[in-house]
Amino acid sequence: MSEQFTSSVDVAGVRNFLVGLQARITNALAQLDGQSFAADHWQKAPGELLQGNGITQILEGGKVFERAGCGFSHVRGPKLPPSATQHRPELVGAPFQAMGVSLVFHPLNPYVPTVHMNVRMLAATPADGSPVVCWFGGGMDLTPYYAFEEDAVHFHQTCKEALTPFGDDKYPRFKKWCDEYFYLKHRDEQRGIGGVFFDDFQELGPEQSFAMMQSVGDGLLKAYLPIVEKRKDTPYGEREREFQLYRRGRYVEFNLVWDRGTHFGLQSGGRTESILMSMPPLASWSYQRAVEPGSHEELLTKEFLPRRDWV
């Protein structure tokens, strides 16, 4: 394991940033959509495996977003679940606390891509009495249904700009990590065009590692809103809508089969309704579907989904 850092982590400061980030993002989306988010403030009941609280904010049936969910949670538990210790065997059974903001926005218009972002901190106390181990994780990725080169370049350029102050190696490293993580192994297919992803991160020390997480979180609106503004009024028909629902099925498959965050939440006794708010309201599957040669749908699957460098 890389060097641990401990008490200098400002847990209250991390929480304040995350709550503020959730508010800034949902306020911006509500203004764009014209519909407010419903806020569900929740508290784990005494006696439950996890203790803690959070705010789940959800917008459904909007003019721009069919479903947009953005949740904050801060929980404590008696021992880390298997999904959090698969690379850290020395922390098996360690008590922990975790906090983060996670969002998935599913647009109504098929020409607007789905976006996902998560930023989080996790701290664990080893059973052998050694110092508290704390690390950060996060990232954002884009899942278009129809391919636009300038949108992909803009999204990745914004991700790069968020990470460059913390080292020129961070964007290429985390971009590769994102490509490898958001991959449907059972289909040999990427979920979307990626972005950046990092986990178990502590190598810059507490303050700078937290600052890097903040920069990624603050980059979401810069990366995504210009794309939404550009595409949200594009005319579409039944063909585009049907293809969008088909591709959403891939999104569901990844979240349920491969996503560590979903597994962590369910394994640790998290709040199921909040964990599964990332699911689209509608999705579809078809048997051995083929795309029409030379079509816009083929452009997405043949040219955009395979891993490539965008900036």
How would you summarize the topology of this molecule?
Elements: H1 11-33, E1 38-43, E2 51-60, E3 65-77, H2 82-85, E4 96-107, E5 114-124, E6 133-143, H3 149-163, H4 170-181, E7 183-184, E8 189-190, E9 194-201, H5 205-231, H6 238-257, H7 260-267, H8 272-275, H9 296-304
Antiparallel strand pairs: 1-2, 2-3, 3-4, 4-5, 5-6, 6-9, 7-8
Unreliable segments of 5+ consecutive residues: 1-7
Q: How would you sum up the global shape?
A: globular
| Average predicted confidence as pLDDT | 90
Quaternary state of the chains? single chain
The structural class is alpha+beta
Query: What is the helix fraction of residues, given as a range?
Result: 25-40%
How many strand segments? 9
Tell me about the largest β-sheet: 7 strands, antiparallel
Strand content: 15-25%
How many helices? 9
Short structural description:
This protein is an alpha+beta fold and 311 residues long. Helix content is 39%, strand content 24%.
